[in-house]
Write a structure and sequence with these properties.
74% helix; MetI-like fold; 307 residues; mainly alpha; 2 domains; single chain
Amino acid sequence: MEASGGVVTPGTDVRQQEKEREEARAAEGRGPRRNWVRPVLMWLAVIAIIIFCLFPFYWLVNVSLKTGSDLSQSDLVPPSPTLDNYTSVFENGDFTSALRNSVIVTSVTTILALIVGSFAAYALARLRFPNKFLLLAVILSISTFPPIAIAAPIFKLWTEFGLYDTYVGLILPYLTFALPLAIYILTSFFKEIPKELEEAALVDGATYFQAFRKVVLPLAAPGLVTAGLLTAFFVWNEFLLAQTLTSSPKAFTVPVSVANFTGSQKFEIPLGTISAASVVITIPLVLAVIVFQKRIVAGLTAGAVKG
């Protein structure tokens, strides 16, 4: 029954309740499907991204295990896998010398960048002076400067000062480009450390340097690891300046040494040995990222969230 004047009768309530129950049953029928489809699509997207990122490295390993006529084939799995290319690489004295050079240059540059960068970043984080943000912006802008623009002037300068084809001649320009990013990362981290911790150490009798070394630096370990790894990755992979500022195997770094690989015949490209050498120099970087991935994320996201 229905009543006039806009009054809802009991029959109308019953039909409304039945409609709501039907909609609820329809929603329940769609629920399990939605709960099943969304995770599947997400995992398919994750798998696709992983394959997209890892396939180039897999192909590099694939080529490094091939020799002879197998190099001209595009098999996903090497027909006759062999380690001859790796043996040839490590029997090459120039490549082992380049590995040593890269380790020395990378280690010295990273250590200097962390030492100088930590002091500079601590000053920017704690001291109060005008235009501090502008100074940090100028420091960071140095890292965006194209190395190709200064390669020729540095070559001329280093030749006159006797720094051409030396470790120092590589470390100085690398340090120039690595320091700004290290300072920026460490400044963000030092700002997150409560100043009261240093003041408590000073009250207990510590000097300013002891408070910095024993209180601030341990708490900033993720930032130090992040800055150190990014500096090491940059120096380890850098090619342009290393090619410009060196001319002999005594100072060649790994990228330059790999670029100078020659085939057994004229105009032959040694794909197998180049791929094997590339795998060798990539493995340390991959292992470093796997071991320190949590600290890298913590360092890169420092200061990103407030409150």
